[in-house]
């Protein structure tokens, strides 16, 4: 009789522990549903978001690569290269580094008859030329905005209709599917209910 009551107590203790863990896990997931919904929504829409805006596309390395490939087919990849060079340029603080990089960007993209000259007006070109005496991180901002606008209003809408975008979208969708498959499998392997089942 003593052994039987001891077994029922052990079973009750095991159930109590299991229920305590179960309630903690449920509490964690139920008490904070918004962050999880946001993450799931983000992963679900990740592939489609690349085509939502030029800004979103350029925020992803795979988007930059696909868009540059498209621009190359239109003989205007220098626009993206200039925009990216300006983004990198703005991160520097050192006057020596700013001067060196500003000169390189000017020679490659701004100077009249430069090998990869971008399409900016004479006035913008002159302002940049004068700012090279003491370059600041913002000396290319006006030209960068003009090129961004040119890409957003001209190249980007055509890119969304291109084969390069379809390949990018398919790759991002497949990657999302692989992540979802891995996540589902990983959760099944590490599920607390599997590890702490009552005996």
UniProtKB/TrEMBL annotation:
Tell me which SMART domains the record gives.
Answer: RGS
Instruction: Tell me the SUPFAM superfamilies matching this sequence.
Output: Regulator of G-protein signaling, RGS
Chain positions covered by the region annotation Disordered: 179-199
Q: Where are the transmembrane segments?
A: none
Q: Which Gene3D superfamilies match?
A: 1.10.196.10, Regulator of G-protein Signalling 4, domain 2
InterPro entries (UniProt xref): RGS, RGS_sf, RGS_subdom1/3, RGS_subdomain_2
Segments of skewed composition (Polar residues):
189-199
Report what the protein is called: Regulator of G protein signaling 2
Q: Which organism is it from?
A: Seriola lalandi dorsalis
Lineage of the organism: Eukaryota, Metazoa, Chordata, Craniata, Vertebrata
């Amino acid at each position: 009789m003593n052994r039987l009551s001891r077994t029922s107590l052990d079973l009750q203790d095991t159930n109590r522990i299991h229920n305590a863990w179960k309630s903690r896990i449920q509490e964690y997931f139920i008490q904070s549903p918004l962050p999880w919904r946001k993450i799931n929504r983000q992963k679900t829409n990740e592939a489609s978001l690349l085509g939502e805006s030029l800004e979103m596309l350029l925020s992803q390395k795979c988007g930059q690569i696909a868009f540059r490939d498209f621009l190359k087919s239109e003989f205007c990849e220098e626009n993206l290269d200039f925009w990216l060079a300006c983004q990198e340029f703005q991160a520097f603080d050192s006057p020596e580094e700013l001067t060196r990089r500003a000169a390189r960007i000017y020679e490659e993209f701004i100077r009249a008859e430069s090998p990869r000259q971008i399409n900016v007006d004479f006035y913008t070109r002159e302002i940049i030329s004068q700012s090279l005496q003491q370059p600041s991180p913002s000396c290319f901002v006006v030209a960068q905005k003009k090129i961004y606008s040119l890409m957003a209003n001209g190249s980007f809408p055509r890119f969304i209709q291109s084969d390069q975008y379809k390949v990018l979208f398919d790759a991002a969708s497949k990657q999302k599917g692989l992540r979802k498959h891995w996540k589902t499998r990983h959760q099944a392997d590490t599920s607390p209910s599997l590890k702490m089942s009552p005996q």
